[in-house]
Amino acid sequence: MANPPQAFVTRKQDEDRVRDFHHIWHPCTQMKDYEEVPPLLIDRAEGIYLYDREGRRYMDVISSWWVNLFGHNHPRINRAIREQLDKMAHVMFAGVTHQPAIDLAQTLVKVSPPKLTKVFFSDNGSTSVEVALKMSLQYWLQTGKPQKTKFIYLKGGYHGETLGALSVCGIGLFRDKFEKVLMHNIEVEGPDCLRCPFGLERESCHAECFEPMAQTLEKNRESVAGVIVEPLVQGAAGMKMYPPVYLKKLEEACQATGVHVIYDEVAVGFGRTGSLFVSEHHGLNPTFLCLSKGITSGYLPLAATLTTDDIYQAFYDDYVSFKLFIRSHSYSANPLACAAANATLGLLIEPGFMDRLEPKIKMIGREGECLRDLPWCGEFRQTGMIAAVELVKDRDTLEAFPIEQRVGYQIFLEGLKREVYLRPLGNVVYFIPPLVIEPDQIATMMTAAHESITTVLKGT
Amino acid sequence: MANPPQAFVTRKQDEDRVRDFHHIWHPCTQMKDYEEVPPLLIDRAEGIYLYDREGRRYMDVISSWWVNLFGHNHPRINRAIREQLDKMAHVMFAGVTHQPAIDLAQTLVKVSPPKLTKVFFSDNGSTSVEVALKMSLQYWLQTGKPQKTKFIYLKGGYHGETLGALSVCGIGLFRDKFEKVLMHNIEVEGPDCLRCPFGLERESCHAECFEPMAQTLEKNRESVAGVIVEPLVQGAAGMKMYPPVYLKKLEEACQATGVHVIYDEVAVGFGRTGSLFVSEHHGLNPTFLCLSKGITSGYLPLAATLTTDDIYQAFYDDYVSFKLFIRSHSYSANPLACAAANATLGLLIEPGFMDRLEPKIKMIGREGECLRDLPWCGEFRQTGMIAAVELVKDRDTLEAFPIEQRVGYQIFLEGLKREVYLRPLGNVVYFIPPLVIEPDQIATMMTAAHESITTVLKGT
Question: Given an 8 Å threshold on Cβ–Cβ distance, is A312 in contact with B406?
Fold first, then answer.
């Protein structure tokens, strides 16, 4: 380990990669993998492409971890940041305010569900969720129901990796090693449309799978503060998709039992599903809405937690009541990030923008046909601009590939050869491209995925 | 509440403030306070001054929540961001790397204590702490000591407000309302130099107050994963200061009992104490070092958790062992923020820069004399560029002002009248100015504080 592995030193001009190997611990990465395949050294990016030092380009079909909406180096977003930089990069956000944050808050309130009127800023998806959890807990404490201290989350749900956010995560891979220290929340069996226990289809069912949630809410109404879900698409679970009828039922049940609804639209918000927000598009009214990722179109870390006036009022009082929400990230509402977000929203709400996604969404479905026909296709699924193919060993039994086989990782390597940056989640190859992807690029993306999958799996 | 309060509408051009009041929930703020005194609407900033729309300026003596080092709108940092923006604002950091992050990691490793060789990036101080906590837990799990799941923290300690970070917070104001859901860690009575139970002075003592920590470590060595402290200055507790001998004892005791040492230098790092890092300056060797705030000189959110090769190796294995550290913030190592950080470190490590702080540090002490002479001065204390005066009702008994009196808030308002942005922590008026503050500005800052305090407290 003192010496960098062979894969590095045999390449010329790879000094930077050696320095990377010596000093950086990359996120969500087994660093030993880099002994054989070092990370791409990306120097610049343009549109939907990343460029390495040798000038090779890679199509960023997962939008740099689901954040980029309008491509890299977008002139309007770049300009917005440059102009704000000339005035002020940052200022504290307690006792002080600034126009980029005010504009952003007003726009978010305008385009989100009508009951959401207040915006609390933080830095990333995890903190946007933790803010919602803490506001919910403190709300109940200050309105005479201090026993409401638990949250319900779905199996397969993912809401970030700080310990609070992790306590509402329904994926063992993320939480198992920290189980002993996590707060005790309640996991509920959620929708699993590919393997629907009722044998129904997501297009026509009535969310019969809602029953466990209904029962859990009823049984725990006294102790539950809120329910948190990723609406329509469970991202980290492998882009698992379920129908909006589940959300309608959830809202009704939460209203009936006096429980907050927290929508985590960190991954699905800002146009990904073909509408600006899932909640707004389907006429849903969450108590909290958590936003991040696409909010700056993948330029800068920023997050927002939106909530209702009812919640806000439970904290609004004379100072000495100490009902205020004590939470203070130094970079709350960072003006540069707000400027990027304002430019992003400006682009998103331009007349006709969402309509122009329609043909792209259709094309993703059409081009995805080739994946549907693969002998290893358990399911090809799509919600707006998000699509995924779940690969299985056996189409009939839906038997999964053994984890040791690392099918996804091998497909990732094949993708790189084809200049497409796929990064499968386990055995799920997914696409969440920048919204500005063009028809010919959609075709290239799907063809590359098809070839990469076939190359890895033929003969298995 | 449907209508904005009178303080807003009577002012001209205050439409933005009304929008702020309607839509924004500010951090760490009782929003009702804004009915009488709305937040400053800051349009631009330059050097150590913030400018509002009417052209009034405020000296930023708390560096916009302790983040700014080189003043606002610094040409070198602005240029670094602009140049990076032309290439690439952001790219995912798993499977990909980039030069701004590599340069930054190498510099951090070079200037921090020698055993810290690996850098993990995230977005803010809370996450830098949560990363350290989780790495420590997972390290013990993967090295055969899964029972080590608790952390020791100091009374008065503050390490962020996500629920994991809050579980090692020793200040009731921040944690009490969430007590029921926090993981169970161990609070230890720490140094309290102003009210030293041994009647000693911090300049000459031998950290006799270390005894409770020594006993707790000894008693809980089997279950404790790590100890977390803010070295030398407990910021949120009111800039409470203690001597380095405490840290030497802590390091020895942790080594003897097999417990990780986590230094949270989020607030004190990057020159604040007159040295680059407390740990490096005092020859200390923590297992983890958490950094944020000043890392980008207050421009953009960024954080880093540094650790040792020993920790790293416990995660380094074949993928199928699943020993990897699964943690993935979308904006990890954001290139724009890394560019700002590289420019910041470039300025900090320029030959002679730290030496040039010396006369400023002396001047803060000298000018602070006027505060020391106040009849309400419990203590004037200073560590490098950080200074604070703890105001008390009675100098002899050190009796505090009742919380309902809101002495600190009134001093804040008086400060604004004198164009100085003080933001006391309770009854502690503190100064943590940008490192580039000039001698005449130090004098102005202290004079304004003296006047503001006197105006509020005379006659009490």
Answer: no
pTM here?
Answer: 0.97
* Nearest CA-CA distance, residue B181 and chain A, Å: 6
Q: Which residues on chain B are in Cβ contact (under 8 Å) with A108?
A: 23
Contact B127, B330 (CB under 8 A): no
| Mean pLDDT of all residues in B87-116 | 98
A–B CB contacts, 8 A cutoff, strictly below: 440
Cβ <8 Å between A98 and B164: no
B125–A330: do the CB atoms touch at under 8 Å? yes
CB contact under 8 A, B301 and A43: no
Are A330 and B86 within 8 A, CB to CB? no
Calculate the dihedral angle through the C-alpha atoms of B9, B12, B16, B19, rounding to the nearest 10 degrees. 20
- Partners of residue A409 in chain B, C-beta under 8 Å: 319
**pLDDT surpassing 90 at residue B10:** no
**Residue A23 is assigned to a structural domain of this protein:** no
The reply to whether B326 and B199 lie within a common domain is: yes
Give bridge partners of residue A224 from the DSSP assignment.
Answer: A150
Collapsing DSSP to helix, strand or coil, A197 comes out as coil
- Residue A12: per-residue pLDDT: 43
| Claim to verify: residue B57 and residue B82 sit in the same structural domain | no
Asked if residue B120 and residue B98 are part of one domain, the reply reads yes
Residues A336, A435: one domain?
Answer: no
* Rounded-to-integer distance, Cα B6 and Cα B39, Å: 14
Could you read off the pLDDT of A194-220 as tens digits, one per residue?
A: 999 999 999 999 999 999 999 999 999
Contacts of B413 in chain A (CB under 8 A): none
Q: Where are the beta strands (DSSP E) in A205-282?
A: 224-229, 233-234, 240-241, 260-264
Q: Would you say residue B29 lies in a domain?
A: no
Cα A328 versus chain centre, distance: 23
Burial of B314 (0-12, 13-18, 19+ CB in 10 A): middle
Q: Do A138 and B330 touch (CB under 8 A)?
A: no
The CATH number of the domain where A418 resides is what?
3.90.1150.10
d(CA A21, CA B174): 39
Distances (CA, A) of A188 to A152, A157, A196: 7, 10, 15
Give the pLDDT of residue A410: 97
* Low-confidence spans in chain A with pLDDT less than 70: 1-13
Residues B300-335: tens digit of each pLDDT: 999 999 999 999 999 999 999 999 999 989 999 999
The token pair at B64 is 């916009």
pLDDT digits (tens, 9 = 90+) for B240-265: 999 999 999 999 999 999 999 999 99
Q: How far apart are the CA of B99 and the nearest CA of chain A, in angstroms?
A: 7
Tell me the nearest-neighbour CA distance from A198 into chain B, angstroms. 34
Facing residue for A301 by CB, picked from B97, B326, B331: B331
Q: Does A92 sit within 8 Å of B120, measured CB to CB?
A: no
Q: Is the pLDDT of residue B143 over 80?
A: yes
Asked if the structure places residue A417 within a domain, the reply is: yes
What are the tens digits of pLDDT across the range A90-104? Answer: 999 999 999 999 999
Residue A81 belongs to domain spanning = 76-348
* A100 and A59 in a common domain: no
Indicate whether B3 pLDDT > 80: no
Per residue in B284-300, pLDDT (tens digit) is: 999 999 999 999 999 99
CB spacing of A91 vs B64 below 8 angstroms: yes
CB contact under 8 Å between B105 and A307, yes or no, is: no
pLDDT average, residue stretch B410-434:
97
A-chain residues within 8 Å CB-CB of B309?
Answer: 1
Helix (H) or strand (E) holding B367: helix B353-367
The alpha carbon of A320 is separated from its chain's Cα centroid by a whole number of angstroms, namely 39
Q: What is the percent of chain B with per-residue pLDDT over 70, rounded to a whole number?
A: 97
* Chain A nearest-CA residue for B107: A23
